[in-house]
Amino acid sequence: FAQGSLTPPPGAPSPTMTSLSQVMTTLNQNEPRTPISSAPCNITKPGSYYLTTNLTVADGDAIDISANGVTLDLNGFTISSTGTYGTAIWLVGNEASGVIGNTDITISNGHLTGGVTYTNGTGMYGGSGFVNGISYNPTGGTPYNVRVTGVSVSGCQNYGIYLGMVLGNSTVVESCTVNTVGGEGIVASSVSHSTANQCGNTAIVADTASDCYGNCTGAGHGLLANYAANNCYGNSVSGHGIYVQGSANSCYGNSASGIGLGVGYANNCYGQSYDGTGIIASIANSCYGFTDTGNNGDGLDATTANNCIGFCGPGGGTGLAVTIAIGCDGYSNGSTGLVAFIANSCFGTGKPAYIVTHPYNMP
Q1: In this structure, what are the phi and psi dihedrals at residue 350, rounded to the nearest 5 degrees?
Q2: What is the DSSP string of 87-142?
Q3: Nearest 5°: CA angle at 150, between 208 and 20?
Q4: 116 - beta bridge partners?
Q5: Beta strands in 200-260 (DSSP E)
Q6: The dihedral sign for the CA sequence 222, 172, 166, 129
Q7: pLDDT tens digit at each of 363 positions of the chain
Q8: Which is it for strands 186-192 and 329-332: parallel, antiparallel or unpaired?
Q9: Count of CB atoms situated within 10 Å of the CB of 88
Q10: Which terminus has fewer CB within 10 Å in the chain: N or C?
């Protein structure tokens, strides 16, 4: 069958497809979000914003958020500073009222860097860079309903990610990393799947924390949770490795000279201290407390301990010191293995092995 004329049309061949630049132009015209390509920038209207390139400031803030209902996508880019003051992302809040700050804010997917470098193990930091990675204006009120996800912060003089700690302010930090900051690493109501390392003050502060790692090289704690910590690791030089006022489950706390793990209710936890107490708890279930030297603490101290082990090195502390112990073991290389008011089905090794006012089923 005939397919038409095979004679080409007159003139030179020309492209019939849409070019990449034309496609990008069309996409940008239809993009519902607002691009940010330079800093400093002040977001004054609600909406969705995104970075189109890396941003660097010599001093001051890079991005101020003065409106509510803002979504900021860093789009995988980096915001950096070569100066000595300012915050990478600053939540301005409402200075007129000063009660409730920014609300309904989401920040995601990017990097905030300064030039601060870690110098030694005492929490001292030096160098230039942002004062804070993400923080808020205290005179503008505490932020509410703020979520930060997938953001890395490094080299800041003070805070890494600081969203405040007011009951019910619904601030969330998830899947974020903070490294080498002079103050607190991450502060929010809920913190999960996040890491704060080499922090000059408490690495992570939260109402609830899960699947987190906090390392404090200064005088603070590795991780502090007001209500609950699950599957977390905390390390500190002189404070608590992990300090939880409520409950801790499957957590590991380590401290060089302070308390490894201090908690109200501990379940399946491990606490270690080189020169302090491994674990201090009101109730401890299936826990292990260890102190290396025991010069200034015990292996495990608790009001009630079930199926726990306390171990103390040669410094003279008690392996396990409790009011009521059930199915527990206490070991000490320099003092009493187990000290309790009531002990049932327990075992002690030390000098003496145990001191128990009311022993039951004891060897």
Answers
A1: 170, -160
A2: EEEEE---TTT-SEEEEEEEEEEEEEE---EE--TTS-EES-S-SEEEEE-GGG-E
A3: 160
A4: none
A5: 204-210, 213-216, 223-230, 233-236, 242-249, 252-255
A6: positive
A7: 566 666 666 766 666 666 665 555 555 555 689 999 999 999 999 999 999 999 999 989 999 999 999 999 999 999 999 888 899 999 998 766 656 789 999 999 999 998 887 655 555 566 778 999 999 998 888 899 999 999 999 999 999 999 987 766 899 999 999 999 999 999 999 999 999 999 999 999 999 999 999 999 988 999 999 999 999 999 999 999 999 999 999 999 999 999 999 999 999 999 999 999 999 999 999 999 999 987 889 999 999 999 999 999 988 799 999 999 999 999 999 899 999 999 999 999 999 999 999 999 998
A8: unpaired
A9: 31
A10: N
Q: Which two tokens stand for residue 270?
A: 């491990």
Q: Which residue has the tokens 């003279």?
A: 316
| Cα 36 from Cα 39, distance rounded (Å) | 8
CB neighbour list of residue 138: distance below 8 Å, 6 or more residues apart: none
- What are the start-end ranges of the H helices in the chain? 20-30
> Which are the contacts of 330, defined by CB distance < 8 A and separation ≥ 6?
299, 300, 309, 310, 311, 318, 319, 320, 321, 336, 337, 338, 339, 346, 347, 348, 349, 350, 354
Q: pTM of the prediction?
A: 0.89
Sequential DSSP letters for 267-297: ES-EEEESSS-SEEEEEEES-EEEESS-SS-
Amino acid at 3: Q
